[in-house]
Amino acid sequence: MNLNQFQEPDEFEDFGENGTRFFGSRKKEYRLNSKKPAPILAEAQGNAEESGYTYTYNASRHEKQWLMSSIHQFYQEDWIEDILKMVRGGKEASIYLCSRPVGSSPRWIAAKVYRPRRFRNLKNDHLYREGRDQLDTSGRVIHDDRSLHAMRKRTSYGRELLHASWIGHEFHTMQLLADAGVDLPRPYASSENAILMDFIGDENISAPTLNTVTLGSGEAHQLFNRVVFNIELMLSFNRIHADLSAYNILYWEGGIKLIDFPQAIHPDENRNAYRIFARDVEKVCAYFATQGVEADPVRLAKSMWLARGRRINPQIDPAYLDPEKEEDRRAWNQQ
């Protein structure tokens, strides 16, 4: 897929549940660059039409083109039968509920489709890419010198590869953590711009994010312990979520599922790992504090980190604590 065939404004059109559109302050929508043809999109759309592939979700023309170019591969491989609706829209990616061929298990599946802007401007991506291998969309390490050089120089070709690597990294991370027993939607397949995974919810409603849920006292303590268990389990398999908060945790039938792993890092290969880890813990504790769960994020993060035999190096991470807080200074000095 040649992602440079797309041109975009600063703000993308966002889509709400069931395809309801709402616009940012600039009130523009992404569009095809008229100066460059879109043969891959046209080919994907043409192949779909030739095969008689139509779907239930009523997408706009441009969204339909982008959607088809991103997940047509899954249709060809019989992963999906129909796209039913968009269940969540965002600036980085949108989630679509898809049905699978009759007799398939699971019957429903989610397609996470990245937006065009994701390959254009991965904000602060260098912070998370440090120490990680460059992967292709199937999660295999890229060894080709020409490709790696293009990625370092961020040429047009290199940015396409970086975009694909970002998705490949998320897919590989999800595979690793799902096999480890982490509570997350199990991934099934990936393409250059999308990931197929378990759909959390049913055909009528998708699981809400935890930040929209008010918990009872007993349930809040139970789920807090479960989230902490997942953080520790990820750390034992050398992964830090790196963007964990109540916005990236789904709530369904009394349980939780962690989502959105493209920024995940290895704790021993990123110089900012502890600072990022402590930030995850702080955000989780901040939400559960609103639900009546008291926890000290500084001490909790430190205890989980040091329990694995890792050190906190102030020369590398001098700013992970707030120097204005006396309690934080004491925690730093006690390492």
How is this fold's topology laid out?
Elements: E1 6-7, E2 14-15, E3 21-22, E4 31-32, H1 39-50, H2 61-76, E5 82-88, E6 93-99, E7 108-114, H3 117-120, H4 125-129, H5 145-153, H6 156-180, E8 187-190, E9 194-198, H7 217-236, E10 249-252, E11 255-258, H8 273-290, H9 297-307, H10 326-333
Helix pairs in contact: 1-2, 5-6, 7-8, 8-9
Structure summary:
This protein has 335 residues and is of the alpha+beta class. The protein has helices at residues 39-50, 61-76, 117-120, 125-129, 145-153, 156-180, 217-236, 273-290, 297-307, 326-333; strands at 6-7, 14-15, 21-22, 31-32, 82-88, 93-99, 108-114, 187-190, 194-198, 249-252, 255-258. Strand 8 and strand 9 (194-198) form a beta hairpin.
Total count of helical runs of at least 4 residues:
10
Inertia-based shape: globular
What is the alpha-carbon Rg in Å?
21 Å
Distance between the termini: 49 Å
Order of helices and strands: EEEEHHEEEHHHHEEHEEHHH
Mean pLDDT: 76
Question: Which percent range describes the beta-strand content?
Answer: 5-15%
Q: What can be said about the biggest beta sheet?
A: 5 strands, antiparallel
Low-confidence stretches: 1-51, 315-321
> If you consult CATH, what is the topology of the largest domain?
Phosphorylase Kinase, domain 1
**Count of distinct strands:** 11
CATH class of the largest domain equals Alpha Beta
- CATH-assigned homologous superfamily of the largest domain: Phosphorylase Kinase, domain 1
The number of domains: 2
What share of residues is helical? 25-40%
Strand order of the largest sheet: 5-6-7-9-8
CATH architecture heading of the largest domain: 2-Layer Sandwich
Q: Which class of secondary structure composition applies to the elements?
A: alpha+beta
